[in-house]
Amino acid sequence: MEDCLFCKIIKKEIESQIVFENESVIAFKDINPQAPVHILIVPKEHFTSFLDVSYADTQLVIDIFQAAKKIAQKEGIAEKGFRFAVNVGDEGGQIIKHLHFHLLGGRQLSGSLG
Ligand code: AMP
Ligand code: ZN
What we know:
Layout: H1 5-10, E1 18-21, E2 25-29, E3 37-43, H2 58-74, E4 82-85, E5 101-105
Antiparallel strand pairs: 1-2, 2-3, 3-5, 4-5
C-alpha cells in the first residue's frame, strides 16, 4: 500500500535490519527497542490491523507464529521467555497501521501489559 511505512520496508524502499524473511513474512529490528531483543514480525501483505485477518489467512497466521518461534530460538530468548504482542487500534497503542507483532525479550518483562 502506498504511503505505508512497513510496505516500503517490505519493498526495500526504506532500510531496516532484517532478521528473517520468507515468502509471506518479514521480520526486522524495532527502531526504538523496548528490550534487548525487540523485533517486529510483519506479514508482507498489507493488513491494516489484526481485525482484518480472517479464516482465509489461516496459513499466514501459522507462518507468523512459526517465524516468531524461529526468531526467538535464533535470538536465544526461547528458553528464558519472551513476549509476543499485537497492538490493535488507537487505544491499543497501534501507531503503524500495518499489522505487526512485537517479539520482546532479553530482560525480565513486567507482568503488567498496561
Ligand atoms: P505499534 O505502536 O504497535 O504500531 O508499533 C510500531 C513500532 O514500529 C514501534 O515500536 C516503533 O518503534 C517501530 N518503528 C517505527 N518506524 C520504524 C522503522 N522505520 N523501522 C523499524 N521499526 C520502526
Ligand atoms: Zn502496509
